[in-house]
Amino acid sequence: MGDHGTWAVLLAVTLTLELPFAWLRYKIGLFIGYPVTRAFVHSRGAAVFLIFVLSFFGIIRAVISLAAPIGAAWWWRNQEGGRQPSGPERISYTDAIADLTAQGEHVHPPREWFVVDSAQPGAAVCGDTLMVTRGLLSNPCLTAVLAHELGHANSIDGRVTCALNRVIFKEPRRDPDFEAKNPPNGLTMFWRFVMWFLRGGIGIKLLGPSWASWWREREYVADQYAKQLGYGEEFADYLEEYGLFYDRPVPFVWLTLQTHPPVELRIDRLRDPLAGITREELDEMEAALPRQGEANPEPEPDPEGAPEPASEWHGNPS
Asked: Exposed/middle/buried for 130, CB within 10 Å: 0-12, 13-18, 19+?
């Protein structure tokens, strides 16, 4: 199944798994929230409809995001603490995007973008919005990284990211210092369970490894997009400097939520060190190597007769 079919099936199953919980939220809302809703809405039908929309709101807005991620930029920017770019940052970004869009009509810049104050270079795409860090805007590899991110923005990746994020209502950030001084009691744990139930996301949790596997393949696709734009080598340099150091072994990766493939393999595909050598030829070269327990093959004799090697000199120099 191709990438398009894979994401469609995964998203359909994810939203289907959310339906029973949304329906249960709806029933609870009718039991608990209906009297409160009627205080503000005089029509019984309107009150029931409002409870229904609120119960299925995550699923509804996820489906809408696939067609038009309305409001995603504003929400994401505020969630990440993003800001508007400064004048010099805007110039750096505009120059880089101009170089990329000049590569062809198929390259479209993101509709909106914002800056996150972090010294580490980084970028991400959600919907039709791009997030870049302050450190990336002053990095010489800015254009190469943006070429990779445009691979996500000019494909289904950005909208799928937005849809999955909108299935779940974000949990307020906790204060680690407060929780260290006040360990959670039974009532707190029960409240967290209720909030987890109301937030949704059971489908994403159950299909997390499958989604992670799909995202790992999409990273390779975005890398090749940057390579097609002529920035494969430069992006490989960026990964080598900023990504390779942080790579760690991931046991049973197919059971994890690891969304990025090993950086070394990404660099390998970008630089293509086996250019001119097919995978079949490489397999033949490996098959010709002696296996454990096998003797090394004897060298074939030289038909013309190889000269005897010179004896090692042990005397004193004259």
From this structure: buried
Map tokens 């190889």 to a residue: 306
Overall residue count recorded for the chain in this entry: 318
pLDDT, residue 144, reads 97
| 287 φ/ψ angles, rounded to the nearest 5 degrees | -65, -25
d(CA 149, CA 123): 7
> What is the rounded radius of gyration, in angstroms, for the C-alpha atoms of the chain?
28
Single pTM value for the model = 0.80
Three-state DSSP at 112 gives strand
Q: Between the CA of residue 32 and those of 37, 58, 169, 227, what are the distances in Å?
A: 9, 20, 20, 56
Q: Which residue has the tokens 């870049």?
A: 132
pLDDT band of 314, cuts 50, 70, 90: very low
Helix, coil or strand: residue 76: helix
Q: Which two tokens stand for residue 310?
A: 């010179």
For the stretch 211-227, what's the b/e string if a residue is b when 16 or more beta carbons lie within 10 angstroms of its beta carbon?
Answer: bbbbbbebbbebbebbb
Q: What is the pLDDT of residues 33-89, one digit of tens each?
A: 777 777 777 788 888 888 899 889 999 999 999 988 888 899 999 999 999 999 999
Query: Looking at this protein, which amino acid is placed at residue 252?
Result: F
Q: What share of the chain is helix, strand, coil (3-state, %, to 5)?
A: 60, 5, 35
SS3 126: strand
Cα–Cα distance between 165 and 193 in angstroms, integer?
20
Residue 31 is given by DSSP the state: I
Number of C-beta neighbours around residue 78 at 10 A = 10
